[in-house]
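Example protein as discussed:

>
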Amino acid sequence: EVDNIIRRMHSRWPSEEIAATLNRMKLRTGTGLSWNALRVNGVKRRLGLADTLQSETSQIENQMLTLEEAVERLGISNRSVLRLIEAGLIPAKQVVPYAPYEIDAGAFNAPEVQQAVRTTKERGRHARHWAADRRTLPLPGLEESAPKKHR
């Protein structure tokens, strides 16, 4: 299973990300250790896999983004982007469960995605306003003077 996951992820993700995915899947090395980049690289060598990632040009041509890149591009939280993925508004895939998402940036231009992003940002503005109002809202019956010191 580990060999298969590494084969599927090696051309797109760095060894550190592959190791993190294997650890999230609760998979261990043959000796029961957790995964790190050095151990992943050892398996890559054993499997005869090149230690090079896809060129940035081909990634740009495919317009596939990570969750972090999508968050930065859309200007909303990672949880909000995940909600849009779960709702099927933004196409995304994972090589295996717990692997990083590969998100199709072309979908960001769809009117329903743009509307969902606007709604999310507006909802965030209202929430920030509401929170600020709660911090500064005066309560009836309380004096605004400083508390009296007791002897």
Helices lie at 2-9, 15-24, 37-47, 56-62, 67-74, 78-86, 111-136. The chain has a mean pLDDT of 83. The first strand starts at residue 64 and ends at 65. Strands lie at 64-65, 92-93, 102-104.
